[in-house]
Design a protein that fits this description.
The chain is built from 4 helices and 2 strands; from the N terminus they run H-H-E-E-H-H. The chain is mainly alpha-helical. The chain has a domain of about 90 residues: Herpes Virus-1 (2-Layer Sandwich).
Length: about 130
């Protein structure tokens, strides 16, 4: 199956976020240009998908590439910067589900990971 159309959408989202921030295309009419550095390529994103086995960096759940065309789908992959003060550069980005990407913004990496681990353990215990 050819997924080029989905990869192009993911890449388009990265370019919009690099230029306009988390608001992406919603902010482009405001002429806001944050100018985050962008040195990764679409091939880098595809390689991350393969190395992460199509799973969310934070949750370990399967992401759905096809869901990039579904507005607000929590299972669509998104490219997330681990350090928001640095741009979209190798070593600073991972693929995360939209769900995890939106939630993580309020926490540092380790706190978010700890909270998720606790949540998932409670879920498995039935609590």
């Amino acid at each position: 199956m050819n997924h080029d159309q989905y990869w192009k959408k993911v890449w388009s989202n990265v370019k919009l976020s690099a230029r306009y921030g988390a608001g992406g295309g919603r902010l482009k009419d405001l002429k806001t240009n944050l100018g985050h550095e962008l040195t990764i390529t679409i091939d880098d994103i595809k390689s991350m998908w393969d190395s992460q086995d199509g799973k969310c960096h934070w949750l370990g759940i399967d992401m759905s590439l096809e869901d990039v065309d579904i507005k607000n789908s929590p299972f669509a992959p998104s490219v997330e910067r681990l350090d928001s003060t640095i741009g979209y550069v190798p070593g600073n980005v991972v693929l995360a589900s939209r769900f995890a990407n939106r939630g993580r913004g309020a926490y540092d990496n380790e706190d978010f990971k700890d909270r998720l681990t606790s949540l998932l353990e409670k879920r498995q215990d039935g609590n």
